[in-house]
Amino acid sequence: MGWVEDAPDLATLDAITTTKLNALVPMEVPAGTVLFSPGDAVKGYAIVLNGRVSVSLTGASGREILLYSVSPGQSCIQSTLGLMGGEDYTAEAITEEDSHVILLPKPLFLRLLDNSPSFRTLVFAAFARRMQTMMHLLERIAFQRVECRLAAHLLERAEPCGQLAATHQELAIAVGSAREVISRRLDAWSRRGWVKTRRGKVEILDPDALKSIANEAM
């Protein structure tokens, strides 16, 4: 038994591939660790066993946007594109919380992609799902109002108690906006009694009000 048997998303892998992957040792990565930056060469295919990794892009103006987060069972499209196309990273990846990550070296990844149908199916299925989330992001940024994106993000990421630990800048990155815009929206919602804000935290007081905004047509 190895780490592969503890990863439900890898249950379809054949025995030979499972043995090769089990020879790799999981890495403990503390929260706040930069895994890659723009211009870095892609060294391998990362599998997140537990924890969460955020991948963001910074424009020439300094404005930053969250492209996606990688949770257990999800893939990093930047790594897949780099491994198969030879391109360097164009975004930055940082662990949001303490994580365990497996890194498949590029030669092993390419061999398995060529020789293991079950591994190839897993990689391309994960790639397709990630591409779909990127299309949804593009659609939201292009057509959905900022308040709709913000309300949806708060509802999605809040704990069961209704609280979310995030600064206004982090929320701005997550929804593709500016910190000042997010601050104005939260201040307005706070005056209406929908949310309560304090340093680094947002508490949802009226989830139905936010759901109504999040579900508005684009």
Give an account of the 3D structure.
- With 218 residues, this protein is of the alpha+beta class.
- The protein has two domains: 140 residues, Sandwich (Jelly Rolls), CATH 2.60.120.10; 70 residues, Winged helix-like DNA-binding domain superfamily/Winged helix DNA-binding domain (Arc Repressor Mutant, subunit A).
- The protein is 44% helix and 22% strand.
- It contains eight helices and ten strands.
- Strands 2-6-4-5 form a four-stranded antiparallel beta sheet. It has a three-stranded antiparallel beta sheet with strand order 1-7-3. Strands 8-10-9 form a three-stranded antiparallel beta sheet.
- A hairpin with a 2-residue loop joins β9 and β10.
- α5 crosses α8.
- It is elongated, with a radius of gyration of 19 Å.
- The relative contact order is 0.13.
Q: Quickly give the CATH architecture of the largest domain.
A: Sandwich
Q: What would you give as the CATH superfamily of the largest domain?
A: Jelly Rolls
Q: Strand share of the residues?
A: 15-25%
Instruction: Name the overall outline.
Output: elongated
Give the SSE string.
HEEEEEHEEHHHEHHEEH
Amount of helix:
40-55%
User: What name does the CATH topology of the largest domain carry?
Assistant: Jelly Rolls
Measured between the Cα atoms of the first and last residue, the distance is: 49 Å
Q: What is the rounded Rg?
A: 19 Å
Structural class category = alpha+beta
Mean pLDDT: 90
Largest sheet: 4 strands, antiparallel
Q: Regarding CATH, which class of the largest domain?
A: Mainly Beta
Helical segment count: 8
Number of structural domains = 2
- Unreliable stretches (pLDDT < 50, length at least 5) are none
